[in-house]
Predict the structure.
Amino acid sequence: MKISLINPTPSKLIDEQKETFLCASSPPLGLLYLATYLKNSGYKISILDQAALNYKNSDVIKWIKKKDPDVVGFSILCASIENAKLISKSIKSWNPNLKIVFGNYLATFYAKKILENYNWVDICVRGEGEITFTELLEKIELNKDLNEVDGISFQLNGKIKENKNRQFIKNLDIIPIPDRKIIPNIYKNRIGGIDVSKRKFTTMISSRGCPFSCNFCACTAFSQGNWRIRSINNILKEICELADQGYREILFIDDNFTLNTKRIFELCNKIKKEKLDMVFICDGRVNNSSVNLLRTMKKANFEILMIGIESSSQRILDYYNKKITPQMSKLAIKNARKAGFNYLIGSFMIGGLDETYNEAINTLKFISKLDIDFPYIIFTHALPGTQLFNDLIQKNIIDEEKYWESGVDLIDLPEARMKRQVIFKIIKEQFHLNFFRPTYLIKAFLRTIKSRYRQEMIFNHLNFHDFDKFIKLINNPPDLF
């Protein structure tokens, strides 16, 4: 039985030529986990990452026809649903016997609406896919009833059947390490549209889920507060395997990497003993950022730390249910610098429904006072399935039918206290000023002298094209808002 898995391109493609890449161009790790699990179960697997290959929808359709699979699975997010719909409808017309399966966040939160609106989609996999998808394929292959497969919704005789939820996988060590040879290694860690380094790059996770309840976070809604970890030996095994395969840079994409500080101490100490020629990147919560922890991470070659700060307003932080304070953020950054981190990224959200211009401007001023290297600023977006999105529905602020596929930027709602173009102009000005502050330039220069990693970032890109891109980025922050 042949299975093809598709990672569709976001409909509003982030175009590198327009200097609008802000994050890493990362492998589809969820699909790699699924593909490896299915491969180990005896299925013939192929994966296509549309955005990474810069494929048009017509190219994807040709690729699928060439593979001639029995089942095609699509990883569905709000950003990619439109392309997934177009591609899946086309291939279903080409082969009506083909089984079309949607999975990931949107298929978990809105399986029924997907099946109601897109009758060519046969099945939605809700929640984690490894076990569910495998059981589903077993039933399809034997032409058996799907009613006993937990975690799916499907079309049956013109009606939609929703089976009970599947329990979360408690022991993550039973899931095979992703086989990254299944897809070409064409990924590079990018910040501001520029490749951070020329090291062979990939992503991995040490845990799944998050126990916190930030109301804007799809992970919180997806994991329902369930946080599960891999054993230290299992994590280390994957790191060593990646090192043997020539990987030299790993981005941990856990939803909460530093949650349990004891396990991070243990992991970092074991990484140090391996003496690997690798660097690591991760995020961290500001309330899990002691100097001792961060110093231990730095000694284990963690080079970039991404910190969720969001706002300088305690009122706005409480609105998001972040459970942090601006003072915690200041201390976390101070501790990271004491620990020796030479590159810090802070993430911020502007445009909450009730957020004022003064609060937004104060956050921008706060950014300029923080000792960070790169501010990642987005407009607050209510994603389908999140508590923030559900609250807007319950208060009759948005029409669920209009936004269940896409979500909505709060700043575009009539109830918002700010206007997009006004605050964007202010963000643009502040973004530019941030990079030309004398203190910023001096500190950046001194840190570059001390840091081999920062030197790599610069010397790998001493060419007019990348320098021009960076200058344009400073003068025109990415239009991700």
Observations:
- Residues 2-16+27-162 form a domain with the Rossmann fold fold (CATH 3.40.50.280).
- Residues 420-435 form the longest helix (16 residues).
- The CA atoms of residues 112 and 160 lie 7 Å apart.
- The radius of gyration is 23 Å.
